Amino acid sequence: MKINIFKISFVLLVVMILQSCDDYLDLKPEDGTVRQEFYQTKEDVQAAVIGIYDAMLNQPAGVNDRPLTDYLFMWGEMRADMVLATEYASNDERDITRFNILDTNPITTWSAFYRIINFCNTVIELAPGVLEKDPTFTQEQLDSYVAEALTIRAYLYFTLTRTFRDVPLKLDATLTDQDNFQIPKSSQQEILEQIALDLKEAEGKAKENYGSPAANKGRITKYAINALQADVYLWLEDYNSTVQACNKVINSGNYALIPANNSWFNIVFAEGNSTESIFELQYSLNNLNPFYDMFFERPRYTASARVTEEVFGVNFQDPTKKDIRGDRASLVAINNYIYKYIGLTTNERKSRATSDTHWFVYRYADILLMKAEALNQMGDNEGALALIGQVRERATALDQTERNPSDTEGITDYILEERAREFAFEGKRWFDVLRNAKRNNYERIDLLLSMAAYSVPSDIQQSVLAKLEDSNSHYLPIYFYELYANKALEQNPFYE
Amino acid sequence: MIQKLKSWGIFKSILVLGIFGLILHSCSQQEYAERTDTQVNMLGYIENDPDQFSLFLEILKITGNDVFVGTYGTYTLFLPTNDAIDEYLTSRGASSIQDVSMEDLEDLVRLHLIEQKINTSSFTDGKIPTSTMYGEFLTTGAKNENGETKITVNKVARIIKANIEVGNGIIHVIDKVLPKATQTLAQMLDSREDLSLFNEAVVATGWNAPLNEPLTYDSDSVPSYLTVFAQTNTAFENAGINSLQDLKDRYSHTGNPMDPDDSLNLFVAYRILPGLKYVADLVTSPSHITKAPSEVIGVRVKKDTVLLNEETFNGQLERGIPLDREKSDVTATNGVLHIVKENFNVKVRFPTPVYFDVGDQPEIRQLPSIFRRPGNEVTFYPGELQNIRWGGGLYVKYVAHTAGSREAQAYWGDWLEIQRLRTGSSSWIEFDTPVIIKGQYKVWITYRTNGRASVAQAKFDGELLSRTVDFREYRNTELPPRVYESQGYKQSLAGDTWIYNSRFMGIVDVETTGRHVFRLEALTGAGGPSWIDVIEFRPVEMDQLWPKLGGDGELVYENEGEEPAEGE
């Protein structure tokens, strides 16, 4: 009995001695990772870059915000006129659709964006150091990885600045808790210029071809950068540069519109990575999208009542004539369900287990219509109309949605209408209208006002119109929690 | 004994321990939390910022209200700044708060308080649904000044800091004292130059008396608020009316405008609605009852214009009368005043038949490859059709029948299949009818007989109709049509197939022109679906057999003689 107690005590003592010394002598910080420990080999860098793409699909375990694509959809659509929040949408979401927005509304949280921005910053900052450590890592490989990180960061900041206008611009990696988080906002102009600069650098470093269609559409190529450049230059109202960027994509010969046929929907959306596609977020059977729940099982959003009849149009005389982008592509006309992300073919839906439709960031039609928008602003009406015609023709758009404007304003309206059809529910509508409304010091504020007049409930319509006359209201408030955490931030004055 | 000793010992030790405990305890002072939350109350918030709110605090103290905004509750306070109160005092010619009567100060405080917590995200273009403690409703909106938009209250006060959460409610800081309504509707009309002719008409018809009555509550505590659509002299002039005499000449057909049946009296009564209806309340409902007996005003919003009485009627668009939104929503003590831009009058309409093809639904019309295209069908589940509601989770199917088939003799060649109307979970279905003009109508329902269907009763706006329909019953093809009609059946379709029957359900009194609700409720079980083609509302004085309804949607009249000549 006694021996037993002795033995046990002895063993315990030894264990305690062994354990105790370990951490005690360790001088490494516990609230971050040491630089030298970050990437050691080119495989580490590659894993980090793939990790960035992965982070854009679904949020990491244990984080309770939403997938990035959910925000991309909500911020781009909920204040516009194409979707309707259903009873499955939260009150916070409904408040935003009614322009009753407080800074306590959690839909305005941007943490998902800055989380991924930090991944990008880490690659941009630390990947170059691997050149010394891993002799098999080439400069060319490094450049390509950095280009991917730069471009994704640019895209995220681009979305943030279109949503919040002025946001803090953090361009270096956060490695420990001691890093400075008290960063003031930068203006939209500064952010857009930084993005343009980053994209120029990325363009020089990026690959043109990864060797497989999935990688060419799922990773950042030189042409994806050009597409984003075109978009950014439109916001900067630099139309020459927009046209140049678009021409690079067009002249590459890598992309084309797929003509209307029975499998068009399946090829372009359900399967994805088609020749129309420039950059898509690659959901897969192993990493399913959130859209099955979002648009079908408990649909938070459906198409608004005007989409079928007013946006796509209906040919009552000859129903065989229809816009292929409308019924059973973008939406299901009988119940207004959003179909783009849940359909397999025009008749068959995907199941929960096969819900892998991608998120479409840029498609070729976007290049054509962005170029049209720029040409129109440069005074080339004919050129703009020809490009719109090209998109309409392959979509067999209905005659009743055809316009023959001859002035810049009319063509602007026409481009917006065509974009509403082409990119229905792709998270672009609000930004498209805002971009055109704000041009030349809000010359076309009427675009925003008339969109709201038709789409917001009539009992709040007048208040909403008055709010929209204040350009600060076109941007979401900074979530109150961010203001606590970062004392250098200032709230958008509209929400004070 | 030993037992006793032992227990004594235990008792002693407990006693000692207890005393020890008391001694140990007594010395340290216990700290109790006196409040469960440290947030300030409204009073605390006001006291903390004397630079901005000292005057309102003074008012609270003078009126003795400081105690209760400092206590527990859920209030909304519209808190005017010192500048706002200064402005209020100047406008009243007072140099300090003491110069204002106690009564006015009390009203002022109560006008700025609501006994419910309301944050700005529930504001609309109209009134806040809960009244202030003063009893008046506040209106909200938004106004843009110099590119900056702020939420407004009662049109004049701008909210400069919103949604400040305090322990007993929520505070919105405003830059003006809220104006209190002082005039009744009648006084308001009387005081406005631009409404003088309208006011004359109101006085001439005796409507000024009800418009001047102070607010009362009936036995159900429904307040006696009224809503008035006034029109300016300019609007009258544009319609060629320059004086009261012109008005009388044009409208007064009895010569005595005080007579409630006189058309000029109705002209005025038609502009008065019971209830407190701001524009935001008007636009939430397509039609509103007026003080003109059984007459309704229709309200529609086209883009951002509010139109009265714009209707598509018998395929014709009748242009509506625009409301002057800027000048509307004027609060009176007993109601609200709106201004219309043009002259208008009661729509006189006579009852006309409505052949309600139940398959004609907006959602189905959107499907041109199916709607009335022979050989097509589409299925709907509950909630998918805005104008049809039904119980249970089963579907309703729209079927456009193959050309040439017996079924295709249905009106417009289509029907709705109700899967299925039977007692139990799916026991009812409800249709919003097209617009029916007020009057008396006979209701007929045409169905395809199904031996496995049910018997059902019908309700019109909740009123039970006199007869039931047996969806299993075939049409009697032997009896002369008029005799059969007298028994409550008829052949309603132009085609003579025996598979359809039409059943008379009863007479309905349609009291207001507008859309109504027709409901079917199953009285028996059913093993099969019910197939409904058309529901007819025919004015009672109209022939109930002719015209008949064609498979192509045409109406077929008697003398067109497709049928052999009638008996009687």
CATH superfamily of the largest domain in chain B: Galactose-binding domain-like
> Main sheet of chain A, how many strands, which sense, barrel?
2 strands, antiparallel
CATH architecture of the domain at 254-425 in chain A: Alpha Horseshoe
CATH architecture of the largest domain in chain B, by name, is Sandwich
Mean pLDDT of chain B: 87
Order of helices and strands of chain A: HHHEHHHHEEHHHHHEHEHEEEHHHHHHH
Number of strands of chain B: 31
Taken as a percent bin, the fraction of beta residues of chain B is: 25-35%
Report, as a whole number of angstroms, the end-to-end distance of chain B. Answer: 121 Å
Return the CATH topology of the domain at 254-425 in chain A.
Serine Threonine Protein Phosphatase 5, Tetratricopeptide repeat
Overall structural class of chain B, as computed from helix and strand content, comes to alpha+beta
Cα-based radius of gyration of chain A, to the nearest Å: 25 Å
- Total count of helical runs of at least 4 residues of chain B: 14
Class by helix and strand content of chain A?
Answer: mainly alpha
Please estimate the helix content of chain B.
10-25%
| Unreliable sequence segments of chain A | none
Helix content of chain A: 40-55%
Quote the CATH topology of the largest domain in chain B: Jelly Rolls
Shape of chain B: flat
Count helical runs of chain A. 21
